[in-house]
Design brief:
The complex is a heterodimer of chains A (135) and B (123).
Chain A (H helix, E strand, L loop, with lengths): L1 H25 L12 H5 L5 E2 L2 E2 H21 L4 H30 L4 H20 L2
Antiparallel strand pairs in A: 1-2
Helix pairs in contact in A: 1-3, 1-5, 3-4, 4-5
Chain B lengths: L2 H24 L1 H4 L5 H6 L4 H20 L4 H19 L5 H18 L2 H8 L1
Helix pairs in contact in B: 1-4, 1-6, 4-5, 5-6
The chains are: A mainly alpha (135), B mainly alpha (123).
Chain lengths: 135, 123
Amino acid sequence: MTALALLFTLSAVGISETVYLIRKRIASEKPICPIGENCALVLTSRWSKIFIIPNDILGLLFYVTASFIAGFLVVGVEPVAFWNFIFKLAVALGALLSLFFTYLQWQIIRAWCFWCLMSAFTIWLMGIILLASNF
Amino acid sequence: MKKTAFHFLRVGLAITFLWIGILILKQPEIWSGYLQPWAAGLLPIPITQAMLGTAILDIIIGAFLLVDFLPWLAASAGAVHLVIVLTVSGITDITARDIGLLAAMLALMIDSLPPRILNKIKN
């Protein structure tokens, strides 16, 4: 239960963050960049989309799915084993994708984006919690 | 309120409401134990159904706050909801926490009120 509470909390933080980025993108405004000054450079680069889907939308979908599954697992919505598997698979894929995006910022774009790093750390932390709790 | 502080408060309260909603959905009959007998007697529907309704309301308030959609409305509903909770649950070990949540929700409500509503209150 504690692990699920933490996973749900991290998912909710991810939702609020991605909604903020989506709103800023739609309004064509620069997001606040608390650390560094290159958020906009990363968020408007050619790597900010996978095919035609912006990364912030993909992130929102991931976090919404994760929060729903965490909720399902708490309430005990069947099939629990299936939700458990999907959750682990989604976090594993998200963690790998975040690793790739962090590499892009570091070596290809050569600029750091606070929001992208925050999202990456959120997903990695979810992965660590899943591994440590072994539920 | 400073913009950053507002968002910390908004997201924090959103998570609290969402999580409480999920926990009530899991075991509505246990959560109904917090209701004072006089309040339970006033309910026109079975207590479990009332708790499920409460859970859904908590989740809606939490979701609105989380995505920053009509935060003043969500915070107002949350504040009213917390006043009702404080009234119908009596003085318990967790009353102090609910008072803190209510104060935080009122702060959020006051800070997010749209100018047109603020002007109506002032005039």
